[in-house]
Design brief:
AhpD-like; 185 residues; CMD-like; mainly alpha; Carboxymuconolactone decarboxylase family protein
């Protein structure tokens, strides 16, 4: 197995140092995912830039955003991101029943949130070929055409992190040792 370095600001390649400093300032620590992505300044910049843009510009509520992130992470069987977005979803006040349904691949009882979840799952599973019926059902649930495209963007963010975690075996964060976050693919 090839080992990847989880870079600190000091050990990161020159092209990643400034971005890692900004990540550390924003989060109060350097997440191991970003430390791993720092191996490639391009990968770190792409992921962090897109993640930051989504957080700042999405029209989804914080809870809805975390629902999409969590849905993708579960579908991609990414333990690191599923645990991380469980924590973030709780901080965004996503209902615990919804979080558990997502983590257990069970239906969500809230019809609007279930529509968001189903649309996200369909886009991921069908690699974008979700079809007109899926788009129409999403719009009929009260979402917008802009949000169709936002789902695609959020999926792109999670695909970068989920695939990175699979390939590099990103170590879990300390807070992920909390049994309430534990999740196995």
């Amino acid at each position: 197995m090839t080992l990847f370095t989880v870079h600190s600001i000091d050990s990161a390649p020159a092209g990643s140092k400034a971005r890692l400093e900004a990540v550390h300032k924003a989060w109060g620590f350097t997440p191991k995912l970003q430390g791993t992505l720092a191996e490639s300044p391009l990968a770190l910049s792409a992921y962090d830039g897109l993640f930051t843009a989504v957080a700042a510009e999405t029209t989804f509520s914080p809870a809805e955003l975390q629902l999409v992130y969590l849905t993708v992470s579960v579908l991609h069987a990414c333990e690191y991101c599923t645990m991380g977005h469980t924590w973030l979803a709780r901080n965004a006040h996503l209902d615990e029943g919804v979080i558990q349904a997502l983590r257990n691949r069970a239906p969500v009882t809230d019809a609007r949130l279930q529509a968001l979840r189903l649309f996200t799952e369909t886009v991921v599973r069908e690699r974008g070929f979700a079809g007109d019926a899926a788009v129409d059902a999403f719009l009929a649930a009260g979402f917008t055409k802009a949000q169709v495209l936002e789902v695609v963007t959020i999926i792109a963010v999670k695909t970068i992190s989920n695939y990175t975690n699979h390939l590099t075996h990103t170590p879990k964060e300390g807070f992920m040792s909390d049994p309430a976050l534990a999740w196995t693919a």
